Amino acid sequence: MPTPPVEATPDGSFWYPFTQMQELKRSDLIYVRRGEGRYLIDETGKRYFDAISSMWVNLFGHSRTEITDAIARQLEVLPHTSTFGQTHAPALELARKLTEVTPDGLNHVFFSDDGSTAVESALKMTFQYWQQSDDARPGRTKFVALEHAYHGDTLGAVSVGDIEHFHKLYRPLLFDVLRTPSPYCYRCSLGRTRQDCSLACADALDELLTRRAPEVAALIIEPCVQAAAGMIVHPTGFLRRVRDICDRHDVFLIADEVAVGFGRTGCMFACESESVTPDIMCLGKGLTGGYLPMAATVVTERVYRGFLAPYEQHKTLFHGHSYTGNPLAAAAALASLDVFERDDVLNRMQAPRAHLAERLGALRELEHVGEVRQCGFIVGIELVRDRSTHRPFDRAGRKGMRVAEAAREMGIILRPLGDVIYYFLPLTTTEEEIDRLVDVTVRAIRSATESE
Ligand code: PLP
């Protein structure tokens, strides 16, 4: 492979995601040559621990031969055919397997390409269901979503999203959404504290649906952890309450497990931790072990049946993508699900997960760490100027970015969400790696905040 011109400033031919191209310098980018286990290796041979799992996708490291071999075998036979009028074994087998591993009651799998399209499919399905099923209630056209929600970057997903910085500009293009409080206990929008609240945010949702349920098609939620908002970890019991409230008001519950699915929270799916079966579950990112793009929208019998009718009745789900059910991605996903079983991944995570919980204590002692929150292998470390008042740093100081830069020097890849530093660890991370990760994070936070 030719050596890249390391001195070259990015010339804009590649427009990077979520990046101010005017400021992008060569030194901002790690030129990744190779992936080896949980490490990425740059053009100089420097190794970086991938603490964010390559944007939350990679599950078991970058060179699992079980997955690469499965892709290679499939490549020999059939790289791609559409599933419009054709079918093939990998997609059929994967659909069946996903109905087995997802919570009981989720029995039908609609494939797409990435998390955003899994969400778009779910939104369209629930909307269409209420227009046409035997149980039709055409007034149910609206969606409920949480404060600080993030569900992807396509316009439907942006509509249900609520991250001011990313979404505000597009508002004229978006549909209206009913917003309900997030259980972001560190900065509760209802002005409550953990001690004096018995999930007042769930009560607020109940009140909202008591008034508006006849207009509502579905509620969409990132179960247990609102990832892009800064790894907001929900209190135990919140998801269960949301499920019960949706049931009471006959509102569909869409669980967006695109980020949290496939073991990251310590359960295969976050919904399992509260014994919740959503009406629709959106999957993406880790579905293929992080090797190829693929997503899935998995639905209950009830949702699926709302689309069954003679063709002339026009109840078909008119939605699909060129690569829907791609055989290479399906082969990767099947191999990844095999790794879960063969290596007993979820059980083996338990000791490192407890070790991580213990080691996070070192971060809590730092002067500018306001809160450290953990759910399985997901951690959010919120930096603040003042711990006693929770006052944030000035945005322009980009403290989170400064911490990530310092960590990078020390061979750890972190990418902040504003002033929240986070870990989104590969499921095979060891206790030694956790020790090093926490030590480096402490040093990086100290160096980025020492002048404050
Ligand atoms: N949903 C959630 C919860 C996400 O975190 C993301 C991406 O981060 C998405 C949807 C969108 O996924 P993608 O970037 O694959 O479109």
Protein architecture, described:
With 452 residues, the protein is an alpha/beta fold. It is 33% helix and 16% strand. Strands 4-12-11-10-7-5-6 form a 7-stranded mixed beta sheet, with helices on both faces. Helix 2 (65-77) packs antiparallel against helix 10 (327-342), helix 7 (200-212) runs parallel beside helix 8 and helix 14 (399-409) packs across helix 15 (431-449). It is globular and about 70 Å long. The mean pLDDT is 96.
Q: What's the SSE blueprint?
A:
Blueprint: E1 32-36, E2 39-42, E3 47-50, H1 53-56, H2 65-77, H3 89-101, E4 106-112, H4 115-132, E5 142-146, H5 155-160, H6 164-167, E6 177-180, H7 200-212, E7 216-221, E8 225-226, E9 232-233, H8 238-248, E10 252-256, E11 280-283, E12 295-300, H9 301-305, H10 327-342, H11 345-348, H12 350-359, H13 361-364, E13 369-375, E14 378-383, H14 399-409, E15 412-413, E16 420-424, H15 431-449
Parallel strand pairs: 3-15, 5-6, 5-7, 7-10, 10-11
Antiparallel strand pairs: 1-2, 2-3, 4-12, 8-9, 11-12, 13-14, 14-16
Helix pairs in contact: 2-10, 3-10, 7-8, 12-15, 14-15
